Structure to design on (66 residues):
């Protein structure tokens, strides 16, 4: 994942079956200087869909600190 995060023009949503390590989260925060990305646990996506909530709204509010 570290190679992916340091590349320019790499944006997206990175979904993990398991959780992210503290190191991965720190690297992602640093990568935000050059990329637009979101780290998401697969379980979180399942919960949003099971509750029939809007997935784009979830991403917007989660990544904006809301």
């Amino acid at each position: 994942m570290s190679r992916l995060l340091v590349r320019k023009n790499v944006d997206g949503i990175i979904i993990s079956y398991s959780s992210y390590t503290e190191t991965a989260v720190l690297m992602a925060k640093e990568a935000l200087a050059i990329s637009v990305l979101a780290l998401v646990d697969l379980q979180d996506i399942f919960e949003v869909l099971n509750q029939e909530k809007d997935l784009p709204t979830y991403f917007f509010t989660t990544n904006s600190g809301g």
Observations:
- Residues 2-63 form one domain.
